[in-house]
Automatic annotation (TrEMBL):
Keywords for this protein: DNA-binding, Transcription, Transcription regulation
Gene3D superfamilies: 3.40.190.290, Winged helix-like DNA-binding domain superfamily/Winged helix DNA-binding domain
Listed GO MF terms: DNA-binding transcription factor activity; sequence-specific DNA binding
Cross-referenced Pfam families: HTH_1, LysR_substrate
Organism field: Xylophilus rhododendri
InterPro entries xref list: LysR_HTH_N, LysR_subst-bd, WH-like_DNA-bd_sf, WH_DNA-bd_sf
Name the record gives this protein: LysR family transcriptional regulator
Record-stated family: Belongs to the LysR transcriptional regulatory family.
Length: 299
C-alpha cells in the first residue's frame, strides 16, 4: 500500500524539479528522498522519473500520476478546512425546529444575529408545534428546537431561554388601550376574550390567575396559534394575554400592549438531545438566541 510519505516526497520532487530541493522543503536528506522515490516506483510498478546527466525529469507516466496526486491533495486540503471549521464552530449547517409564534420574528432575528458572527453557516428552519419540535429533536432530525411548551420525554433535554412577563393585547381604539397603569383581571370583566388552547400549560396559568378573583371574562374564541390570536384582536374580536416578544411581531397590526398584573411568565424553551454533547454551532446559536429573546421581551 502506498503511504503518505511516498506521495509527499513524489509531489515535492515534481513541484521543485529536484530531489535536493525537495529534501530541503521536507526537512530531510537527498538520499532519503531518493530512497523513498525508488520505493514508490517499485510499489506502483512504474518508472516515474528519468535520470540523465545529473538531471531529473518526469516520465509520461509520472506526469499522469502527478495529476492524480494533486487531486488527492486537493481533497486533503478540503478535509483540513472542514476540520478547521469544526474546530471553530461545528459543522457548516444547523437544523432548527420552532413553533410558529417564535418563527415569525424571534427565531429569524436570532438567525440574523448568528449569521453576522458566522456568515458561512447555513440554517434550515422547520416550523411546527411544540410536541413535534420535541419529537424532531429526540429523533435527531433537528439539532435544536425552540418551543413554548415541552413534553416529558427521556429523549429530550431543555433549558429555559427566556421568561417574558405577559401583556394584555387589546384592539387599538378600545377603552382599555388607553392608560399607563397595569391592567388587572377585574378590568377585563365582561370583555370578549380570545384564549390560547386549553392544552397549553400557559393557558392553565392564565386561567388560574383569573379564577382567583372569580373569572368574569367572556370566552369567545381560542387558538393554539398566537398569530391567529393577534389577528383576531386586531379585528376587534376580543382581547387576550400574550407573550410580549410574540405580540411585538405584530406591531404592524392595530393592537396595543398593556402591562398586566398579577405577573404571568411566558417561558421560551430551547430543546436539545440530553445524551449527546451539543455541537459548537448549537451552543453558539443558543447563546445568541438567549440574548435576542431577552431583548425582545423587555417592555
Amino acid at each position: 500500500m502506498l503511504n503518505f510519505r511516498q506521495i509527499e516526497a513524489f509531489r515535492a520532487v515534481m513541484l521543485s524539479g529536484s530531489m535536493t530541493q525537495a529534501a530541503r522543503e521536507l526537512h530531510t536528506t537527498q538520499p532519503s528522498i531518493s530512497r523513498v522515490i525508488a520505493q514508490l516506483e517499485k510499489r506502483v510498478g512504474l518508472r516515474l522519473f528519468e535520470r540523465a546527466a545529473g538531471k531529473l525529469a518526469p516520465t509520461r507516466e509520472g506526469e499522469i500520476f502527478f495529476r492524480d496526486v494533486e487531486r488527492a491533495f486537493t481533497g486533503l486540503r478540503g478535509l483540513e478546512q472542514s476540520a478547521a471549521t469544526l474546530g471553530r464552530r461545528g459543522a457548516g449547517h444547523l437544523r432548527l425546529s420552532a413553533v410558529p409564534s417564535f418563527s415569525l420574528a424571534l427565531v429569524p432575528e436570532a438567525m440574523q444575529a448568528f449569521s453576522l458572527k458566522f456568515p458561512d453557516v447555513t440554517i434550515s428552519l422547520h416550523v411546527t408545534d411544540s410536541v413535534s419540535v420535541c419529537q424532531s429533536v429526540a429523533a435527531g432530525q433537528t439539532d435544536l428546537g425552540v418551543a413554548s411548551d415541552v413534553v416529558s420525554s427521556p429523549g429530550i433535554g431543555y433549558q429555559v431561554a427566556d421568561l417574558a412577563r405577559a401583556v394584555c393585547i387589546v384592539p387599538a381604539g378600545h377603552r382599555l388601550a388607553r392608560g399607563r397603569k397595569p391592567l388587572r383581571p377585574d378590568d377585563l370583566a365582561g370583555e370578549p376574550f380570545v384564549s390560547l388552547s386549553p392544552q397549553e400549560s400557559i393557558t392553565q396559568k392564565i386561567d388560574a390567575v383569573f379564577a382567583a378573583g372569580g373569572d368574569k371574562r367572556r370566552l369567545v374564541h381560542q387558538s393554539h396559534f398566537s398569530a391567529a390570536i393577534c389577528q383576531m384582536v386586531a379585528l376587534g374580536m376580543g382581547i387576550s394575554i400574550a407573550n410580549p416578544s410574540v405580540a411585538r411581531s405584530f406591531g404592524h397590526l392595530p393592537i396595543v400592549q398593556r402591562a398586566f398584573e398579577p405577573e404571568i411568565l411566558f417561558p421560551t424553551y430551547l430543546v436539545h438531545q440530553p445524551g449527546a454533547p451539543a455541537s459548537l454551532l448549537a451552543q453558539e446559536f443558543s447563546a445568541v438566541f438567549v440574548q435576542v429573546a431577552a431583548a425582545l421581551s423587555r417592555p
